[in-house]
Write a structure and sequence with these properties.
heterodimer; A: mainly alpha; Helix Hairpins; 2 domains; three-stranded antiparallel sheet; 11% strand; B: mainly alpha; 9 helices; 9% strand; globular
């Protein structure tokens, strides 16, 4: 299964906003239509537009988005470009990490890998939730592949696993704009709603298959 | 009337909860809806009773575990590089919010007193230029954080911003000074009313800044040795 928007996210600048893989109302009541209308149509679009603005006249005009992210990470000169390029990519990855009627216990090889990495599905849920909830301020919770194990990591602001040579498998956006209209200060409820009801395990399997 | 009753109940509840704790929230001197339409009542209520209260609760737990029970918040922040990130984040969160509530007022369009007014004009050219520079800094702070007007150790005014709940009082801040004005640019400060439009929030908040309070802080800061 090829993720939605893979073409848009794999091209060089000017980047196009990759399509949402579902309708704006598809994830309700866990994520409202109103939240998605701002989160996708305003925030994600703005990151793409700003990336396209910032890239003009730089050495990155012919680069792909993931190359820009890796090249500009930890480089003060390009911090604003990194922030916007990484957020453009992160949101594409986040939308594909979600689906209507998702969540629950994965199957097959993925479940085996989860058991060998975390001990059990329940332990995975606990560690993924704790990590995402405890990211202080804006940031992201990630399930990543590191050699032959899955593990959870959290990142600040726009930072992501690509700049740490980790293979991303799933993402949860814990910037307040991702949940404030629906859950206000209750980030923990938002994170558990995603894990229990929205995780797209097909996308996780795809990410494991392209990084064997 | 209803809002006042809720506020009163909240204050009693917080007071009881914190009888044995080191740090407590001062009560707000205005109601949650007093800053309408610039800051809405729902935002104020959640910001004060959930976010700020959460920082106070977590800070009290962390200082108890770290045996810092008799230290002032200033002492903790001025030595924050020695402590763990829980103390840093929640200590900053408490200090910043306690200050923020005092910097806001339902008295619309107050003005700086003479000394501060002159300092703003001589440093930034005009009040209009100052607001423009301040909003530029606040607008470009990426992710959660605060924008500040500080008095530097050389008694000059300066604008800066800090990430998350950091502030210029912290011993490891890149630029240190005494904050006399701070504006919260975490999304929780404006998202219910302004959503992605942080700049609209930044334009609106000047209507409810308590310039008398800012001026008093300025005069105190420049007279400190």
């Amino acid at each position: 299964m090829q993720p939605a928007g893979l073409n848009e996210i794999s091209q060089t600048a000017p980047f196009k906003l990759p399509p949402l893989p579902f309708n704006h109302d598809a994830l309700a009541p866990h994520i409202s239509e109103k939240t998605l209308s701002f989160h996708y149509d305003k925030h994600h679009k703005k990151y793409i537009d700003t990336t396209n603005e910032l890239i003009k006249g730089t050495e990155f005009e012919g680069s792909k988005l993931d190359e820009i992210i890796r090249s500009t990470a930890n480089n003060d000169k390009y911090q604003k470009l990194f922030n916007n390029a990484a957020q453009s990519w992160n949101h594409w990855f986040f939308w594909n990490s979600l689906k209507k009627d998702g969540g629950g216990i994965p199957k097959g090889n993925l479940l085996d890998l989860m058991n060998s990495s975390f001990g059990s599905y329940d332990q995975f849920v606990k560690e993924f939730a704790d990590s995402s909830i405890s990211q202080f301020g804006s940031g992201w919770g990630w399930l990543v592949r590191d050699a032959d194990k899955l593990k959870v990591v959290k990142t600040q602001n726009a930072d992501n696993p690509l700049s740490h040579n980790l293979k991303p498998v799933l993402a949860i956006d814990v910037w307040e704009h991702a949940y404030y209209l629906d859950y206000q200060n209750k980030r923990n409820e938002f994170v558990f709603e995603i894990i229990n009801n929205l995780i797209n395990w097909d996308f996780a399997e795809y990410n494991l298959s392209i990084n064997p | 009337m209803k809002t006042n009753l809720i506020l009163f109940t909240v204050i009693i509840a917080i007071t009881i909860q914190n009888l044995n704790a080191q740090f407590t929230q001062d009560s707000l001197v205005y109601s949650f809806d007093a800053l309408e339409p610039y800051i809405d009542a729902q935002t104020m209520e959640i910001h004060y009773t959930k976010h700020h209260a959460g920082y106070v609760k977590n800070l009290n737990k962390a200082i108890e575990e770290a045996n810092l029970l008799n230290k002032s918040i200033d002492h903790i922040l001025k030595n924050v590089s020695k402590y763990n990130s829980t103390i840093r984040n929640n200590g900053g969160g408490h200090y910043n919010h306690a200050l923020f509530w005092q910097l806001l007022t339902p008295m619309k369009n107050t003005k700086p007193l003479e000394k501060l007014s002159k300092a703003i004009d001589s440093t930034f050219g005009s009040m209009q230029n100052f607001k423009k520079q301040f909003n530029q800094e606040a607008s470009s702070r990426f992710g959660s954080g605060w924008a500040w007007l500080i008095v530097t150790p050389q008694k000059k005014l300066a604008i800066l911003s800090t990430p998350n709940q950091d502030n210029p009082v912290m011993d490891d801040a890149p630029v240190k000074g005494i904050p006399i004005l701070g504006i919260d640019v975490w999304e929780h400060a404006y998202y219910l009313k302004y959503q992605n439009k942080r700049n609209d929030y930044l334009d609106a908040i000047w209507n409810v800044i308590n310039w008398e309070d800012v001026s008093t802080r300025y005069e105190s800061a420049i007279s400190q040795k």
